Amino acid sequence: MDVVIFMSQKMPLPFFLQYFHYLCRNFVKMKCNYHTHCTYCDGKEPMELIVKRANEIGLDHLGFSSHAPVPGENDFAIDEARIPEYVKEIHSYQENSKTQLFAALECDFIPGMTQPFDHYRNDYNMDYLIGGVHLVRPVNDDRLWFIDGSKREIYDDGLDQLFDHQVEKAVTRFWEQTFEMLEQERIDIIAHIDKIKMHNQHRFFTEQEPWYIALVDHALDLVRKHDVILEINTRGLYKKRCDSFYPSDYILAQARKMHLPFVISSDAHKSEELDLYYNEAVAKLKSFGIDQLVYFDNKNWHEYSI
Ligand SMILES: [Zn+2]
Ligand SMILES: [Zn+2]
Known about the structure:
This protein is of the alpha/beta class. The chain contains 10 helices and 12 strands. The strands form 3 sheets. The protein has a 7-stranded parallel sheet. Strands 1-12-11 form a 3-stranded mixed sheet, with helices on one face. A two-stranded antiparallel sheet has the order 6-7. Strand 11 and strand 12 (301-305) form a beta hairpin. The protein is globular and about 55 Å long. The protein binds zinc ion (2 copies).
């Protein structure tokens, strides 16, 4: 994955390309969503309906990102055997879609359990990959703590049963898994980087505690080191599971200082969610002085102004 920085000193472009990118950055008003689920995984609506809606609301780019397979029986990830059909179906809508479509996966990283992400990128010719942590594996334990989903009880039970309610230890494990993913796997976008806060609901830890901030800071250093794109993910807000975007204000402020690239993701699971809180996300980013996003041209990610 390669984030092309305009007028970069490191990467001089031919003049006409510089000029083209300059025009894009200043005049192209794009609306993109690269994080979308459909009925191939835990999405609630078929792909066709989501493509139709994307065209109706004038999305320029729509990326499907089904949950990649995870070990064990589950009803939220795509069956590996269906991935070729998934990619083919995405491509089949392109001819009649003004919205440009992309085939991607949201890959879960579980140490020692999930397949190398390059397997999906290369063997199924994915356009890009999103990486994320939804299942936390305690050290030397095969059980998994599910930190996502609609049920807070599952989060609370996992914290008690897998971590003996040692909150710092459990939350640290989430971030360590994130570090490992960033170091080991090649990803384009990191999904909802601070998802761990969702079911916490300000009960067991605060995001201002020094140990928590140190973990976040390290994750951001790795995001920069590996040229990964952050997403501002609106799902927590519109599902009313969280009172802030992923990521929180502290991360937005640091990301601005570090010049980290962003996309806006609604993480839609049905068509009506495609652009929920999009404008609010733009306003949020701008309030932190972040006035550029990136779009994908099928090869590289490029900045443009919002
Ligand atoms: Zn996710
Ligand atoms: Zn998702």
